[in-house]
TrEMBL record:
Superkingdom field: Bacteria
Protein name: Heat shock protein Hsp20
Matches recorded under Pfam families: HSP20
Annotated organism of origin: Tepidamorphus gemmatus
Swiss-Prot/TrEMBL keywords: Stress response
Family: Belongs to the small heat shock protein (HSP20) family.
SUPFAM superfamilies: HSP20-like chaperones (SSF49764)
Length: 156
């Protein structure tokens, strides 16, 4: 009696087929993309910028670290209560040595979107960019402030 090979057993097993497909997707995922370092410019950083969101009594404060990104290459939009931060990093380096020219270029883009937990006053949203840090202030809408009521918690 001949035993079936491992390959033929896996071929008939739907879980093995799913496992192979998932492995293939992860292997193919990064092919042809610039490295995360080229996208953001810092070793170990992911393709998306680090973002910190802080809620205050009057709204939200969002800070995004964008080292190596120029202010003109950053776009901030607010649409239907979703804040989106998009950007592109461009880096060009040219070095001349012993009559030879070495040139290196890297490009990469990122996008992060955040569903906001409350209605904001879109007319008062501000964004500033300083030393590679984007700060966005999102004040609550007047209607939202009326809907919010702080309830004092008392001990028993």
């Amino acid at each position: 009696m001949r035993l079936p090979s491992l390959w033929s057993r896996d071929r008939d097993d739907p879980f093995a087929a799913l496992h192979r497909e998932v492995e293939r997707v992860f292997e193919d995922f990064g092919r042809g993309w610039p490295s995360a370092r080229a996208l953001i410019g810092t070793a170990g950083a992911g393709a998306s910028p680090n973002v910190e969101i802080h809620e205050t009594d009057t709204g939200l404060e969002v800070s995004a670290e964008l080292p190596g990104v120029d202010e003109k290459d950053v776009e901030v939009t607010l649409s239907e209560n979703v804040l989106t931060i998009k950007g592109e990093k461009r880096s060009e380096h040219e070095e001349k040595q012993n009559g030879r020219v070495f040139s290196e270029r890297s490009y990469g883009s990122f996008q992060r979107s955040f569903a906001l937990p409350f209605e904001v006053d879109a007319s008062k949203v501000t964004a500033t960019f300083d030393k590679g840090v984007l700060k966005v202030a999102l004040p609550k809408s007047p209607e939202q402030e009326k809907k919010t009521r702080r309830i004092e918690v008392k001990s028993g």
